[in-house]
Amino acid sequence: MIRELVSRNNITFMCLQETKCSTWSKEAVNSLWNHSDNEWVEGTENWLECEIRSLMDGGSFYVFNIYSPQHLHQKRKLWDQLANRVALLGHESLCFVGDFNSIRDAYERENCDYRRIDMQFFNQFIENNNLLNIEISDSQFTWFGPAGKKSKLDRVLMNNVWWGSGKWSLATLDKKISYHKALLLRQKVQNWGSVPFKVYNCWLKDEVLLFPDNESRL
Predict the structure, then answer these.
(1) Of 10, 81, 102, 151, which residue is the least packed, with the fewest Cβ within 10 Å?
(2) H/E element holding 99?
């Protein structure tokens, strides 16, 4: 299934959730892809951070794969840990993606209970660290439970450095074996078609332009 998703959507980087691993080592992460692109890894049971070096310009960007706990005090601890990373890496390209187990507003849940204090701390984390919440273009919710329960638990946050590196769009993929919809983050590429080429008639009347030297006349 993962191979199919990667092939169909031309995915170059994937974040997996609920791998049942409490910790990740650099060696374990390196075994999943070409280790020459991977410079540094740090993580806990709730987040995994990878520094990836661009093959184009040698620059680095950081991806944080988030799987937030459900209890409020554990969430606050996670927000504090991530805030410390933002403070340390603030001038780098940072992107946080995954299951945050929190909503930002009441309309992000349907047929579910929610705690305002939970939303308050989550919004403070986003605002205090100057992170941008990337809106999903095709779905209001990402998690679908029994009895019509719906919630927007999964999202993508990024800092201004990452956002400024291109035009980004976020969509969801169809649910397969999970209650969650997978997120697909893409960099928009403007395709204006072939570059037009103009020829002015006056150019055709200029022998110097048509025949820059005598040999060209042969």
Answers:
(1) 10
(2) strand 93-99
